[in-house]
Amino acid sequence: xxxxxxxxxxxxxxxxxxxxxxxxxxxxxxxxxxxxxxxxxxxxxxxxxxxxxxxxxxxxxxxxxxxxxxxxxxxxxxxxx
Length: 81
Description:
Order of helices and strands: HHH
Mean pLDDT: 83
Shape: elongated
């Protein structure tokens, strides 16, 4: 039989290390600016025929920034609820 405490516990897998939040949390605005810069950089890389490795590094940076942005938005608006 499970106790109430065990029923309320949610087991979630840890995110990959590249997606764990760091000690310093950036603002929504800073992250949006970074995403814009990374998106522009990605387009330049594609236009110049960059290697798959460079595109992949950019993709990972972009995905991480988007992940951080989603968590920054959750933090910002969770307090408002």
